[in-house]
Amino acid sequence: MNKILFNKFDKSLISSLPTENFEGRIVVVISPEEAEKAVNYLLSQPILGVDTETRPSFKRGWQYKVALLQVAAEDICFLFRLNHLGLAPALIRLLEDKTTPKIGLSWHDDLNGLHRLGAFTPGNFIDLQDHVKEIGIEDLSLQKLYANMMGKRISKRQQLSNWERDILDDKQKLYAATDAWACIQLYKELMRLEQVKDYELIIREEKGSEDETNISEEG
Predict the structure, then answer these.
(1) Of the candidates 108, 106, 102, which has an alpha carbon nearest to the alpha carbon of residue 124?
(2) What count of Cα atoms within 13 Å lies in the side-chain half-sphere of residue 137?
(3) pLDDT given at position 218
(4) Torsion sign (Cα): 108, 114, 116, 122
(5) What sign has the CA pseudo-torsion 40, 42, 44, 50?
(6) What is the pLDDT of residues 13-46, one digit of tens each?
(7) Phi and psi torsions of 3, nearest 5°
(8) Which residues fall within 8 angstroms of residue 109, CB to CB, at 6 or more apart?
(9) What is the mean pLDDT of the chain?
(10) Running DSSP on this structure, what letter comes out for residue 19?
């Protein structure tokens, strides 16, 4: 049976979907020594999911620096507290690695933020936003993409929390880990769909159009 995908997912449906959470181990990293061990492990994995978090600014013209870099494998996620670590040598090695694929979403923006902390040459990064368009999906947010492709909801309640607080709480840690890990799941599903093409893309027209949906592509 073909999977049904939409070019634009109806946001009102997201709240009815089951919630997705990362169920693996979450490790907070605050020292260069811990970072070295974590990076050694991560670079031994076949694929990684990546994301960053920044303390929100509610003052016009003011932007905080990236506070957290989260890097996930299938069963573990390391949360690198950049407001404590900065770009430690191990992290530069991770960011410049050209072997292990690192999957992100809107990763170009994350890289710009990380470059404010120090100089490095980005290695093997794959931005999901550059690839989902190839199968006709126009919604590019993580929440809508995950609902569309995986049929589950990713909560964004912690997005605007303080990522520079002394100790991250459990909800923040789970949120951060889930976002990074979800990138792996989306990439794997995207590769599967592109290979087997067992999907139908339904086009949702803009509101007000006479014909709001039609099936434009059958894989």
Answers:
(1) 102
(2) 27
(3) 41
(4) negative
(5) negative
(6) 999 999 999 999 999 999 999 999 999 999 999 9
(7) -80, 140
(8) none
(9) 92
(10) B
pTM above 0.70, yes or no: yes
Q: 7 CB contacts (<8 Å, ≥6 apart)?
A: 136, 137, 138, 139, 201, 202, 203, 204, 216
Q: Which residues contact 23 (CB under 8 A, 6 or more apart)?
A: none
Reported as a pLDDT band with limits 50, 70 and 90, residue 219 is very low
Q: How far apart (Å, rounded) are the C-alpha atoms in residues 199 and 132?
A: 13
- Across-strand partners of 202? 6, 215
For 66-97, write each residue's pLDDT tens digit.
999 999 999 999 999 999 999 999 999 999 99
Helices (H), the chain: 32-42, 82-85, 89-96, 107-115, 142-150, 170-196
Output the CA–CA distances (angstroms, integers) from residue 114 to 8, 45, 63, 69, 107, in the order listed: 30, 22, 13, 9, 10
d(CA 56, CA 159): 8
Please say whether the beta carbons of 195 and 59 come within 8 A: no
Rounded to 10 degrees, the C-alpha dihedral 177/55/103/170 comes to 0
The pLDDT value given to residue 206: 65
Residue 85 in tokens: 């670590």
In the sheet with 48-54, reading across from the earlier edge strand, the strands are: 25-29, 76-81, 66-72, 48-54, 102-104, 125-127
